Amino acid sequence: MAQQPLKDRIAIVTGASRGAGRGIAIELGAAGATVIVTARSTRAQPATGYGQLLALSGRPAVPGCIEETAEEVTRSGGRGIAIQCDHTQDEQVAALFAQVMRDHGRLDLLVNNAWGGHESFDGVFDAPFWKHPLAHWDSMMDHGVRNHLVASRHAATLMVAQRHGLIATTTFWDRNRYMRGNLFYDLAKAAMTRLAFGMAQDLRPHGVASVAVSPGWMRTEYVLMGHQTDEAHWHERPALARTESTRYVGRAIAALAADPDVMARSGQVLRVGDLAREYNFTDIDGRQVPPFELDAADGT
């Protein structure tokens, strides 16, 4: 078996039934971690609230579930544990962290990835802010940024008592360029980046690190659906040439979690492409995908 620098570590990855969360959980498992996989979607009960997105894609239900991700974690070399949790429900989040402490007695890593932004997706990417629906605020701020804050409060209580731990928050950041045409998304991701920075200031005296991690353009299930392809055939779509797999960000977070000097990075926003060079890892296809950067037409 390959080297497992995270053997015996306990991690929670929120929003891990699909997308970045799934890729992160699998790579943490490959590094040897026990990964608690959380989200709303189970095999028996897919998450609701994605009606607009499903109508646009022609799919009957959202792809992925926590059981599938947990099984992939175990197959990759770790131990995957699926726990259903709606991160918009504070009592469910509290119960999740209480269960982790009862069952494992510690928490080494929290990956904040639960994101409700797709719930209000209406097919419009580029429009002035006054033409985007206010529903984006609820899905991206209340069901996105707030999810991260609530989970972090519980994790911080445990990690401060231990005097070690890492909170990693997934975001999007391109050197403070503006995501023109999508103010709500830009605002939510900026808030997540600032959340990671602010938490780092409070956590630093206790030996706990907080970072924001920014992947590039990922080939999530929704992106592949939008381009009418799959992971086996994405190379046939020239428009996807700049994309990276969801496992790439997973390798970045696994490298950070294994770094004994991660406290030196606390408070920073880190691009996955930069971390690939620094920690010398590649994406699953062997490429070292450079950091994603907005085109001049995309932002300023």
From TrEMBL:
Q: Which source organism?
A: Piscinibacter terrae
Protein's recorded name: SDR family oxidoreductase
Q: Which InterPro entries match?
A: NAD(P)-bd_dom_sf (IPR036291), SDR_fam (IPR002347)
What SUPFAM superfamilies would the database entry show? NAD(P)-binding Rossmann-fold domains
Query: Which residue ranges does UniProt annotate as crossing the membrane?
Result: none
Q: Name one Pfam family in it.
A: adh_short_C2
